[in-house]
Each structure stands twice: as structure tokens, then as C-alpha cells.
Design goal:
5 strands, 5-stranded mixed sheet, alpha/beta
């Protein structure tokens, strides 16, 4: 049976030398580190340990998206009656609803949530929004050659006259620019300034009503170019919300 030879003194000396060298290197490194370095190394170790045992990301609640601002559009007479009726059967409510849907679509594309409301919608009670606009059309009867054009009104006794005035000014200006129609100021009636929805909505909601034109002399633009009609209303609402200037607007008026 063979015997193992004892380690040589040279090999043992090399191992001792290596151990002493490593010890000297470690001592040198630590002598160069500041107290802050030592603290940072310790903190890094704790953070790594915390990462290993952290809660999975999926357990955190997802952030709730911010609600988009609301606008209200009333399609005049919708859900209640036909409104004005022309001899050939064209109903005002049909024109109003087409335009109201186009206005809604355009405002949604601009980043707003839009409620399309019926004439006596239950949601009108204490309704809160950045603005509410009710869309109507005027008579289909021939009255005279001056029975043409549009008109805009706010509540006669609005609790926010400045906001209501700016809303109507913006709609009046942008509608004229989009359609080229004249402003028929002489036929604004109590049915407009005392419109029922003005008394139903929350006092802080600015509101206006627009008669987009007469179903007689303005029938062509109302029925064949509803996109222009809707664009004028939508741009007027955006003018108000964005606080754009409408003070320099000049619209020809029909008495």
C-alpha cells in the first residue's frame, strides 16, 4: 500500500503568500473607501434584498383615468313631438336630430364626452356640464322674404350672464363663418329666452338655444349641408370652452 508524500515546504509557502496577498489587497481597498461608500454599499445590498421579495407589479391598483369634460346637446323636439312640419312632410325634429348627432360626433373627436339629450330629457334636471346647447329650426311657413337666417339666445335671467353672453357670441360668430347665413335678431322670442331647459339645468351650467334657420327659405342648406350647420355650432362651443376671441365678429342682421 503506497503512502502519500507530505506537502513540500515550497507549496505551503506559496499558499500562505497568496492568502497574505489577498488580505493585504482587501485591507487596501477598505482603507480607500470613505464612510459614505460603506453606507451606500450596505444600502445597495438591502435594496437588492427588497427587490427579491417585493410585491408583484400586478397587485398594485391601476391608476384611474381622469374623466373627460362633459357637454350637453339637446336635439330639439326629439322624444316629444315633431316640431314644425312642412307641407311635404319634412319634420323639424328630423333636421334637428341629424345636426345634433353631427355636432356630438365632432365634439367627441375633439376629446369631450357628449350627452345627446331629448327635448324633455330626465337628465336635464340639475344637469352639469361645461355647456349645454339646444338645437332647433324655425318655421316652414313662408312669412316674407326676410324670414331667413339664424338666431341664438341665452336665458333672459341667466345666473351667469358673462358666461352665457360669451357662449352665445361664440356660437353666433362661428356659425356665421361656417354657413354664411345672416343673423335674424328680430325674431328672438320668449320661447327662446325662457326656454324650459334653462330653468332645469344646474345654475352653473352655461346654456344657449340656437334656431339654425328657417325650414322654408333656408331649407336647402339645412337639409343638404348639415355638416356645415353642425360645424358652426361645434366650433362655437369650442370657441367658448377655449376662451377664443369672438368680440370682433360682424354678422349681417336680418330684422
Amino acid at each position: 500500500m503506497s503512502q502519500k508524500s507530505p506537502p513540500s515546504s515550497t507549496s505551503l509557502f506559496q499558499q500562505v503568500a497568496i492568502i497574505l496577498g489577498l488580505g493585504l489587497l482587501v485591507a487596501t481597498v477598505f482603507s480607500l473607501l470613505t464612510a459614505d461608500d460603506v453606507i451606500n454599499i450596505a444600502l445597495a445590498g438591502k435594496l437588492n434584498d427588497a427587490t427579491l421579495y417585493s410585491t408583484p407589479e400586478g397587485d398594485f391598483p391601476t391608476p384611474t383615468p381622469r374623466p373627460r369634460p362633459f357637454l350637453g346637446i339637446v336635439a330639439g323636439h326629439w322624444g316629444n313631438d315633431s316640431g314644425a312640419v312642412c307641407p311635404d312632410g319634412l319634420q323639424e325634429v328630423q333636421v334637428n336630430l341629424i345636426v345634433a348627432n353631427l355636432v356630438r360626433d365632432q365634439l367627441i373627436a375633439e376629446g369631450f364626452d357628449v350627452d345627446l339629450l331629448e327635448e324633455f330629457d330626465a337628465r336635464l334636471t340639475s344637469y352639469r356640464a361645461l355647456a349645454l346647447v339646444s338645437i332647433h329650426a324655425d318655421s316652414c311657413d313662408y312669412i316674407n322674404d326676410q324670414a331667413t337666417g339664424y338666431k341664438v339666445a341665452a336665458a333672459l335671467a341667466s345666473p351667469n350672464p358673462e358666461k352665457a353672453g360669451r357662449l352665445t357670441a361664440c356660437i353666433r360668430d362661428r356659425y356665421f363663418k361656417a354657413t354664411g347665413m345672416s343673423y335674424h335678431s328680430g325674431s328672438i322670442t320668449a320661447d327662446m329666452t325662457s326656454y324650459h331647459a334653462f330653468d332645469e339645468i344646474a345654475p352653473e351650467t352655461p346654456a344657449a338655444i340656437i334656431e339654425i334657420g328657417f325650414l322654408n327659405l333656408d331649407r336647402q342648406i339645412l337639409t343638404q349641408y348639415p355638416e356645415s350647420i353642425a360645424d358652426g355650432i361645434a366650433q362655437g362651443i369650442l370657441c367658448y370652452i377655449r376662451n377664443e376671441d369672438a368680440s370682433d365678429s360682424v354678422t349681417p342682421e336680418t330684422p
